[in-house]
Amino acid sequence: MERMELDAVVVGAGFSGLYMLHKLRSQGLRVKAFESEPGVGGTWYKNRYPGARCDSESEFYCYSFSDEILEEWEWSEKFPAWDEILRYLNYVTDKLNLREDIILSTRIDTARYDETTERWTLATSDGQTVTTQHIVMAVGPLSAAPIMPNIKGTDKFGGESYHTGAWPHDPVSYKGKRIGLIGTGSSGSQVLPVVAKEAKEVYVFQRTPPYVTPARNRPLDPEYIRDVKANYRDLWDRARNSSRGIPYNADPRSAVKTSKEDREELFESLWQAGGNQFIRKSFHDIFTNQDSNDILVDFVHRKIDELVDDPKVAEKLKGHDYPIGTKRPVTTDGYYEAFNRDNVTLVDVRADPISEITEKGVKTGTAEYELDMLVYASGFDSSTGPFTRMDIQSKDGTPLKEVWKDGVRTYLGLTVPGFPNMYMICGPQSPAILSNAPPCLEQGVEWISDCIEYMKKNDIAALEADSQKAVEWGELCNELVEHTLIPKAKTSWFMGHNVPGKPKEILGYIGGLNKFGDLIDDVASSGYEDFDLRRKSGS
Ligand code: NAP
User: Fold this and answer.
1) For a substitution probing ligand 1, which of 151, 352, 430, 498 has the most ligand atoms within 8 Å of its CB?
2) I want to staple 128 with a disulfide (CB 3.0 to 4.6 A). Which of 79, 124, 155, 433 is the partner?
3) CATH assignment of 3-145+381-535, given 3.50.50.60, 3.90.1150.10, 2.40.50.100, 3.40.430.10?
4) pLDDT in tens, 146-189
């Protein structure tokens, strides 16, 4: 059996893992990244379903740490598709010469900590043993933990079936097929318009109607690209200093105190501009005031009436039982319009619940839909799932899954008490759930690399989060969300509602990326005084 001695291990070679590997290697550490898939890219390696694309504008969906990369890379569309993002991440991997330190097709199966040596011992899926001082979890908040819907018989279906989060690499044909789509979140709503163009029939099994805003994706013209490149430092300063990692500022007026004409003007201009700014640049109180939120919902409902020909279908497509923006916003092109096609049928499974999946298709209380293909766009065991699926034990041998069984506990979403020298990028209770990912992960990577550098310079063998500080961090995260309408959404992954038995709590810090940056900088400037720092023996 091979044995590898390292200073640091990075788990995952997606957006976070690649940058982490680059940083730690530049600091002179012996470091390797382990990636379970045969290629780099993380989320974008796996989420290659039809229509998959990002909903952050491309100029903000990239790394900002390298001027050279910002100069060299050119995005082709306003919202980049999965394959373009994957090309970008491969380009960065080659540009930074990262491949030689990435071990592909190899999972970290177990992680055990030895307090006498203050080192982790890891076992990999191909039988290697790795010892390391630091372990950085760059597993992402979603893609490592796709979930199937909680429906009887998913293993019985005789046709093709695919989960959007684990889409096959070989081409999938929809032509002439009868397709069932389960799930209408960000993934399902992107799948529908693409698949509907080729399929014989598409049955959309909708439980909770999403509020879908048009993305208005378009090719980027050379002038726009030139302008972005000429101003990227300013753009990135604004993105990093914004609350959501993208410089959209909410309108400072209150929706309820603004005249109807002025409200309509703002909503219409944001609807026409497209993308998530429809919600993010709207009135600041739509997240905190139900009446303000209702006004925005009414606008979306009127848009659905305009876009959908059949008034009965339009009615079913309207979300009523949760405020807009309290589930992850959905933005894509052609979603509502797809329901005007003769080959698309909306099945309201709230009114007529799915009873089981059979060999032939989907059975509801009143009908059976015969299908050739089932697409599960049923989401992920978010934030905690990618961690609890691994066999990681604390220094006293308690599995992380057990530690978090009644609720997640972290300090700053970056560390966990009892798990020294283990760090998380975009982990639970970090700002990841509401942020544009790249600035959020860059912030995490940079804090972790500074922390590891500090430990090296000061002969510190172990850094461990304080339990009381972690309790206070969790309280702060939960308190922040109580001032918003987010808890009113009862089927959201933001609060663990989508996984049966998962504790219902906010899975992120929603106080803003900018505020979070200040908080973690203060912790670093204090010499990490909130942590238990253990020196190397003899120093
Ligand atoms: P999701 O938002 O969690 O949506 C899952 C869907 O499956 C929901 O519509 C859910 O209905 C439905 N569902 C689950 N179990 C069901 C059941 N038993 N019967 C019927 N319906 C069921 O998952 P997602 O769409 O994959 O998106 C997850 C996250 O990934 C997003 O929120 C976003 O953060 C990210 N993402 C981003 C993009 C982008 O940038 N454009 C694209 C895709 C994904 P209920 O709502 O009733 O539970």
Assistant:
1) 498
2) 124
3) 3.50.50.60
4) 999 999 999 999 999 999 999 999 999 999 999 999 999 999 99
pLDDT of residue 537 exceeding 80: no
Q: Could you tell me the distance, in angstroms and rounded to a whole number, from the CA of residue 381 to the centre of ligand 1? A: 10
| Ligand 1 pocket check for 455: Cβ under 6 Å | no
Ligand 1 pocket, 132 CB below 6 A?
no
Instruction: Look at the block and give the residue holding tokens 């090296």.
Output: 456
pLDDT by residue (tens digit) across 457-503? 999 999 999 999 999 999 999 999 999 999 999 999 999 999 999 99
**Does ligand 1 have an atom closer than 6 angstroms to the CB of 435?**
no
If you take atom 26 of ligand 1, which residue's CA is the nearest one? Answer: 379
Average of per-residue pLDDT values in the chain: 97
Region 321-325: what's the mean pLDDT?
A: 95
At 536 the pLDDT is: 76
Evaluate: CB of 442 within 6 angstroms of ligand 1: no
Question: Which tokens in the block code for residue 366?
Answer: 């009143």
436 in ligand 1 pocket by Cβ < 6 Å?
no
Question: Where in the chain are the domains?
Answer: 3-145+381-535, 160-376
Q: Is 57 in the pocket of ligand 1 (CB under 6 A)?
A: no
Best residue for ligand 1 mutational test, from 207, 335, 374, 493 (most atoms within 8 Å of Cβ): 207
Place of tokens 């009446």: 291
